[in-house]
Amino acid sequence: MENAEMDSGVTAHFATAHRAQLASFRSFVSTELEPLWRELGEPTAENLPPDIKRHVRRRSAELGFYAPEYPGRLGGGDQPMTVAALLRHAAGRSTCPLAHAAMAGSEGPTWLLTHGTPEQQDQYLAPLIRAQAMRSTAITEPGTGSDMFRLATTARRVGEGWLLNGHKIFLGNLDRVDHILVFAQNEEAGADRSVVFIVAAGTEGLQVRQSFQGMSGEPLFELRLTEVRLPEGAVLGGPGHAHLAMAQAMTTQPIARVLAAAECNGLAEQALMLALAHAKERSAFGQLIGSFQHVQELLVEARTEVEQSKLLTLTCARRHADEGEIPHEHASMAKNVAARTFSRTVDRALQVLGGRGWMKGHPLEYLYRYARMMPLVGGTTEIHKVIIAHALGLGSGQARPSSAVPEDPWGIPGQAT
């Protein structure tokens, strides 16, 4: 469903140079994805058939939407970060759940791009960008969360290779991945002892344990690593780069957080469009409910906050497009504001729709649950406040901002990377 009022907002000028790409994406959604969704019958946004998601991802990659910001030599679109943010917003705004599957995960395959060797990029990254492969990321642990300064999973040198032992939780896509990026603690001495390994699915010593089902999104899995033997070449970045795990994560975090913010903004706008349409159609006491001042207040406040959030997010994306970087505190502000705006907008929209939006199966019911997840992923709201405080010169000199990164399933449902 499109809405002219939303297309003429404060941030519309950010899309001026990219209108053709956005129009092509919307055409893809309306002519291919929406008919396919109707053919499926009764699936929900969080229960899409794996083969359908695989088809959507690959078709999206063929058309250049799936990973637009990645290099053309690897199958990407060589597009600026602004395009990636606008497309992710458009996918979130669409009421067709398959549009979400057409986008790579908000965390994306960036570590492999920024630090992978040419051989690793050809072998692992290119198939991800072309939607021909899937991966997962193993950071979070039962006792330490996503704190990469205190990982319990260990990596020990054995001969010309490595031996991994540990326990990871909250991994996405683990039932169908091709490889896993595993963060571990290097037992060798050094200031930064974390290291990232590229581990092929099915490697001896990997054991997928129970799965968990959250309030929304796809299942998450538990992974045990027992005497997992890896060659030296399994280190992300190649031999001699085992000490760069922290730098790798910190480099990509702002991008991931801005893309997550763009997703939140799109989903918030979807909720607002649903509420606005209802307010223009539903009558009570002999008049449209949109004529009631309290309903107008809910919609006006939501519209204003969504535009504010979009402005902050797209400014960050434009800065990356122009300068190649996003300050950590700017990305944290964008992500926090977008997550809060998403939650507040869905809550207001539900108030407008009343019982209809509360019913199981209504898009707002799902968005209400999904919105509660977003202040937790890509670093919690509290972590982002620490990052912003440090940028202001506040906080303890002993404290370090968390290096928590979003796990794969905690982005758009059905993401592949």
UniProtKB/TrEMBL annotation:
Residues 398-417 are annotated as: Disordered. Gene3D superfamilies: Acyl-CoA dehydrogenase/oxidase, N-terminal domain (1.10.540.10), Butyryl-CoA Dehydrogenase, subunit A, domain 2 (2.40.110.10), Butyryl-CoA Dehydrogenase, subunit A, domain 3 (1.20.140.10). This is Acyl-CoA dehydrogenase family protein. SUPFAM superfamilies: Acyl-CoA dehydrogenase C-terminal domain-like, Acyl-CoA dehydrogenase NM domain-like. Residues 137-228 form the Acyl-CoA oxidase/dehydrogenase middle domain. Belongs to the acyl-CoA dehydrogenase family. Its cofactor is FAD. The lineage of its organism: Bacteria, Bacillati, Actinomycetota, Actinomycetes, Kitasatosporales. Residues 18-130 form the Acyl-CoA dehydrogenase/oxidase N-terminal domain. Keywords: FAD, Flavoprotein, Oxidoreductase. Residues 247-392 form the Acyl-CoA dehydrogenase/oxidase C-terminal domain.
